[in-house]
Amino acid sequence: MWHRIVITVHSGQGGVLYRRLWGGTVVDRVYGEGIHIIFPFNTMYIYNCRVQQVPHHFSVLTSNGLTVDIDISIRYYPEYDLLGVLHQKLGPDYVNTVVIPEIESVFRKIVGKRDAEGLYTTEKAFIETSLNQAVARLARKFIIIDDVIIKRIKLPDAVDKTIQYKLEQKHLADTYKYILQKEQEEIKRKQLEAIGLKELSKALDANVLQWMAIQATLELSKSSNSKIIVIGATKSGLPILGSIPFDNEVEIIKDPQIERIEDMATNNMSSLTKTINAQSLESNDKND
């Protein structure tokens, strides 16, 4: 008798009182957490108001008659302030009475309008729109749907392998298209590079090459590292850099500035040669 008089509502719960003699279900009050004392001929129904999850498995027929197995998980909770109305209209087993059938009905409509392959490419927005409609209908029944999770969609094995093979071939074809486009771009790049090299070869005449040789000689003379210089036998007297033919067969522009630089480089080379020879003679005398 004591447990019918003293009722404890635990954390995360809400109580709905049913008065046997005075009006039935109390819909304008929810009994919160704590201890409540009621008459023994009344009944307190306790509801879990936390977010709950219920798994569900069902089979659906596609538009072409194939059976598809679907596993989903529904997260939900009752609207706290309307627990009395929920109890009066639906009762404690509202999950199996309303929630699961409503969500399952949505999926049956989605899958029933598509063939087996369409389930792999169904737009997410379409599914969300359909689920939102179901959520809105459940909200009018005082139930809040937090989320609907699709865990698994299982097609017949033969159909599943066929669809996967078709999708793999499609992606492979897209890969080949990408490779072809890449190779075409590489061809264009090489053509532009060839044009650039052709124009550069036209611009590199003998005068430009001699100027580059003079600059290289000046930079070489500034270096503090030990070096071996091979004096060229051409008219310019520049060191041998590669196989540039600075001889009498090439017409050279007689620019005064270039001649001064050329003379300076020739004098520097002569002084360097004399110094090296003197050091060699002195070393030989000491050895004698």
From TrEMBL:
Entry-linked Gene3D superfamilies: Band 7 domain
Record localization: Membrane
Domain Band: 4-167
GO cellular component: membrane
Transmembrane segment boundaries: none
UniProt cross-references to Pfam families, sorted A to Z: Band_7 (PF01145)
Main subcellular localisation: membrane
Protein topology in the membrane: Single-pass membrane protein
Record SUPFAM superfamilies: Band 7/SPFH domain (SSF117892)
UniProt-listed InterPro entries: Band_7, Band_7/SPFH_dom_sf, Prohibitin
Gene Ontology BP terms: mitochondrion organization
Keyword Coiled coil tagged: no
SMART domains: PHB (SM00244)
Full protein name: Band 7 protein
Organism: Candidatus Magnetoglobus multicellularis str. Araruama
